[in-house]
Amino acid sequence: MPKFMDVHRGMEGITEEQLREAHNADLAIEKDEQVHFEMAWADPESGHVYCLSEAPSAEAVQRIHERAGHKADEVHPVPLTVR
Asked: By its UniProt entry, which InterPro entries does this protein fall under (predicted)?
């Protein structure tokens, strides 16, 4: 399944608890679009939040985020990964 990295802006001051709540809201409905959100990161100072997911499409990722109440500003495919 393809991977995607999405970016949310304008979340200055986000706390760990708020990030966890937003991530859990995605997890609660992700199966509706065959999406799996693997991880989320946040920088409270810049207000940027990043999410890594596996999904059939960028549109599926966006639909889950929209339904969970935090539409992504960008969704990018991640075709190559190294560890």
From this structure: SCO4226 (IPR042557), SCO4226-like (IPR025336)
Cα–Cα distance for residue pair 12/14, rounded to 1 Å: 6
- Listed residue (72, 52, 48) closest to 62, CA to CA: 72
Over the stretch 8-59, which tens digit does the pLDDT of each residue have? 999 999 999 999 999 999 999 999 999 999 999 999 999 999 999 999 999 9
CA angle 6, 22, 50 (to 5 degrees): 25
pTM score of the predicted model:
0.94
Which architecture does CATH list for 1-75? 2-Layer Sandwich (3.30)
d(CA 6, CA 77): 9
